[in-house]
Amino acid sequence: MTTSTDIRTQPAWRYLLDIRLRLWRRNLADFWAELRKHPVALIAGVVILIYILAALFAPQITAHDPERGSLRQRLIPPAWEEGGSWTYPLGTDGQGRDIYTRILFGARVSLAVGLLSVGISVIIGLALGAAAGYYRGRLDSILSRFADLLMAFPFLIFAIGVMAFMGPGFTNLILALTFKGWVEFFRLARGEVMAEKTREYVEAARVSGQSHTRIMLSEITPNIMQSIFVLATLRMGFMIVTEASLSFLGLGIQPPTPAWGSMVADGRNTLLNAWWVSTIPGLAIVFLVLAINLFGEGLRDILDPRLKIE
Amino acid sequence: MRLVKVIERLLAAIPIMLGVAVIVFVFMRMTPGDPVDIMMGQGGTVSEGEVERLRSEFNLDKPIHVQLGLFLSDLARGDLGNSFTKQQPVASLIGERLPATIELAFGSLFIGLLIAFPIGILSAVKQNSLLDRLSMGAAFLGISMPSFWLGIILILIFSVKLHWLPVQGRIDYDAGLQTVTGLYMLDSILTGNGPALISSLKHLILPSIALGSAVAAIVARVLRSSLLEILRSDYVKLARAKGAGETTVVMKHAVRNALIPTVTVVGLQVGVLLGGNMIVETVFSWPGLGRLVVEAIFNRDFPLVQGAVMVYAFIFVAANLVVDVLYTYLNPKIEM
Amino acid sequence: MNDTHAPLLELRNLTTMFPTRRGEVRAVEAVNLTLRKGQILGLVGESGCGKSTVLLSILGLIAKPGRVDKGQVLLEGRDITHLSGGEMRRIRGREIAMIFQDPLSTLNPAFHVGEQIRESLRLHHMMLGPPWPLDRAKKAREKKRVIEVMQEVGIPAPEARYKAYPHQFSGGMQQRALIAIGLACQPKVLLADEPTTALDVTIQAQIVALMRRINQEHHTAIILVTHDLGLAAEFCDHIAVMYAGRIVEIGPTDQVIEEPRHPYTAGLLRCIPHVGERRAIEPIPGNVPDLADLPPGCAFSLRCDSARPVCNEGFFRLQPASADAVKRGEGGHWARCLRLTDYQMPALED
C-alpha cells in the first residue's frame, strides 16, 4: 500500500489527481482489452500510427528534398518498374522530385489539417453545444438556427467558397474547414447534454449546490466525451479528404509544399506516360482515410454502440 | 392535405434560402479589399473616374445595410450581377452550364442507386456471407476514396489502357447534336440522333461512376442496416406466416419500409454530389457549373463565384425539400 | 368433448433447438398435442417457457440458426415438418393462420390495412382470374371479400377503412384487422399468440368474444397461447400447461382448473386475482429457469414447495392424473409430477 493515496498525508488535490489518473489508467486498460477484440480496428490503429511516425520523422527517414528536384531525374518510374531504381522507390514526378519523400512530408499536411480542423471544431462545437443544450432559451435558438443555416451548404462547396474569398494557405484552410466543421459537434453535444441534463446525477449535483459551469465541466462533459471522440475520429477522415480535394483544385496548400491532393493534380499532366505520379500519392490518401474510418468504426463499436453517423 | 404539407415545407425553405444569401454576402464583404480594388489589380490601367463609376455600379458607396437590401432585391429578381471577366450576367453564365451539371448529377445518382440497391438488399438478406463481407468492405473503400483519385484511376484503366471510354468532355465533336434542353442524352433522343446518344452516354459513364461511388457506398450501408433491423420485425414475421415467399417478404414488405431512412440519406448525399461535382468536372473536363466556378476562383471573378455558391446551396436546399416531400409519401405515419 | 373427429393437427414429440453460446438449448422439448376440428386448446405458461416457439415450429418459421430438431407436425394426418418451402407456404395462411401479440408492430406500417388483408387472398390465389395486369375483376372480387372479412371481425365502416393505415387504427381495431388477415382464407387452424395481451381489458373481452364466434361459426380450431390461465379457463376446451419447454400438465379445462395435479398449475391458479374476493395473490417464488442450465429431473423442482430430493433424479413422464385418463388417451388429464406415481399406471409417452 503506497501512501500516495492516503488523504491524511497528501494535499487534497494530489489525492484527487491520483484517483483521476488511476481511473484513467484503468479505463485505458479496459479500452485496450476491448480493442484487441476488434482486430480490424487494431490494424487500422497501427496504420495510423505508422503514418504519424512517418510524418514526424520524415526528414530522418529520407535524404531527398521534398520541394526541389533535379530535372535530369524527371519521371523515373517506381523501383519495381523497368527503369526504376531504389534511390527513388516510388519514382519521381515531373520536376524530378522523389515521390516517396513528398508523400512522407505530405503526411504532415494531411495529419496536421485533420487534427487541427477537427480539434478546433470539437472545442467550438462542444462549448457552444453544451451551452445551448444546458441553458436552452434564446442562446440555443440562435445557435441552432445558425447551425441549420450552415447545414444548407454542402460541405465542400462551403469550403471552396471560403477559400475562394480568403485565398489559399494553411491557416485559411483550417478556417475554411472549421467554419462549418463545428456544426456536427454542436448538434451532437447539444443533444447529449439535453439528454444528460435530465439524468439523476446532474440533479444530485444541483441539489448539492454546484454552479452551472461546474456541473457542465465536471459532471456532464466527461460523460459525453466518448460520443464526441467517436465522431471526431470519423470526421477526421472526411476532413483529410476535403483538404486533399481543395489542394487538388489548387485552393489548399500551395506549391512547392507537398500535399497529397496537389501531388495527384500535378500528375494529371503526365498521366499518359507516367501513371505513378498521380496514383501513388492518391493511394496514400486512401490508406490513411480507410484506416481512420475503420478505426473510428471500431471505436464506435467499443465506446458508443448506439451512435449512428451516416 | 398532402399539398398543405408540401406548401408548408416550401415556405420553411424561404428563410433558409434568405439566410444562405446573407451568409454569402457577409463572406464577400469580409474579404480584404473591395471588388473594385480586385478588378483594378487585374485590369491594370483604370482611371479615377472609372473607379468611382464602378463603385456606384456595385453600390459600394452606400451603407452596408442598403447594400444588403439591394443585393437581396436583385437576387429576388434573379439578378446575380455581372461577371468581372466575361462581362456577362452571372445568371446566364450559370444557366448555360447548369444542364451539364444536372446531367452528371442524375447520371451519378442513377449509377449510385443502381449499385447500392442490389448490394444493400443482398448483403442484408445474406448477412455475414462472403458477398456481404466483400461488399461492405468495398463500401468502406468507396467512402474513404477521394473522387478525384477514383476518377484518375478510371481514366487510366478504361481510357488509357483499354481505350473503351473517352477521357474527357461531354460528347464527340462530330456528333452533330442539336441542343434543345442542354441535357445531351435527352437531346439526342429528342432529335433522334443515335450516334450522339451513344457518344454522350460513353462520355457520361466514367464521371458518373467517379461521383456516384460514394453515394453507392453510403446508400448501400444504410439500406443494409435498416433492412437488417426490419427483417427481424414482427410484420415481416406476419408476412411469412401469411405464406408469402422470401422474395415478396424482402422486396415488398421489407424494402418498402427500408426506403424511409434510405431516402433521407440520399437527400444528404445530394450535397456530396454537388461538392464532388466540382472535383469530378475538373478531372474529366466536364463543361459544367463546377468547372465554371473553379475557373472563376482563379480569375478572382467574385460575382460569379458568389452566384454559383448560392446556386449550389439553393439546389441543395431544393433537393432536401424534394426528399422531405418524398418522405411524406413514403412514410404514412407523417399525418397529413 | 367430441372425440369422434380425426385429429386436425397433431404434434408428435416436437423438439425445437436453438444453438447458443452456452450450448444447444431446447426451447421446446418432446411436445405432444392433438387438436381436433373446432376445438380450442389453451397453451399456458410464463413468458419464455416455449409456448410461442411451439406455434412458430408448427408453421416452420423458426428463425435460423434455430431448428425443429425432432418430432413431427401432422396436418390432417399429413406430415408437414419436412415440406419444401413452396409447399409449406401453401399451408401458411391458407390452412394454418397465425395471430401475433402486438398488433401495431405486426401490421406493416407502409401499406393500407385492406391491402394487407387482400394480400392473403392474393398469395393463395383465393379468387380465380387472369394475372396482372388484366386482373380488374379479380381485384374487385378480392376487395369484396376483404370488406366481408372486415365486417365479420367487427371493423365498422370497412369500405372507408380499407384505405386506412395501421397507425390510424385503435389497438382493438388493429387486432381485429390482424384477425381478418388470419381469417381471409378461411384456415382450418388459427394459432393465436397472446392475442389480447397488448390490449385494454374491455377490448380483450371483445376480441375473445370475436374468436369464440369465429370458432363456432366456422368450426375453426384454435390454439391460444397465453400466460393468463384465467383467460384460458374461460375460453378453451383443453388446456396444456408448459414449463421450461415441456408440457407439465394437460387435460380438459374443468379438470385442469378444478383439480390441478401439477404444483406449477396450482401455483398459476393461485396467481389469478378474483374480483370481489379479498384473497391475497400468492406469486410463485423464483423465476423461469435458464433453459441452458436446467436442474436434473423436474425443471420446476427449484420453485416447488413440495419438492423432494427424488424430484431431481431421473426423467419424468406425463402421468395419468385422473381415473379415466388412460382410457381417454390424449383427451384425458395428464401431469408430469412425481406425486402422481401413486396411480401406478403406464405412461402415455414413449
Concise account of the structure shown:
Helices cover 71% and strands 0% of the residues of chain A. Chain A has 310 residues and is mainly alpha-helical.
Describe this structure in words.
The complex is a heterotrimer of chains A (310), B (336) and C (350). With 310 residues, chain A is mostly helical. Chain A has a single domain (70-309), classed as MetI-like (MetI-like fold, Orthogonal Bundle). Helices cover 71% and strands 0% of the residues of chain A. Chain A has eleven helices and no strands. Chain A has helices at residues 12-35, 39-56, 58-61, 99-135, 137-151, 155-166, 170-197, 200-207, 212-249, 260-267, 276-303. The longest helix of chain A has 38 residues, at 212-249. Chain A is globular. By secondary structure, chain B is mainly alpha-helical. Chain B has one domain (90-330): Orthogonal Bundle (MetI-like fold), CATH 1.10.3720.10. Chain B has 13 helices and no strands. Chain B has helices spanning 2-30, 35-43, 48-57, 64-76, 90-125, 130-144, 147-161, 184-190, 194-230, 234-242, 246-283, 289-298, 302-330. In chain B, helix 1 packs across helix 4 and helix 5 (90-125) runs parallel beside helix 13 (302-330). Chain B is globular and about 85 Å long. The model of chain B has no long low-confidence stretch (mean pLDDT 85). The two termini of chain C are 25 Å apart. By secondary structure, chain C is an alpha/beta fold. The longest helix of chain C is centred in the middle third of the chain and has 18 residues, at 201-218. Chain C is globular, with a radius of gyration of 21 Å. In chain C, a hairpin with a 2-residue loop joins strand 4 (67-75) and strand 5. At the B-C interface, helix 10 and helix 11 of B face helix 2 and helix 4 of C.
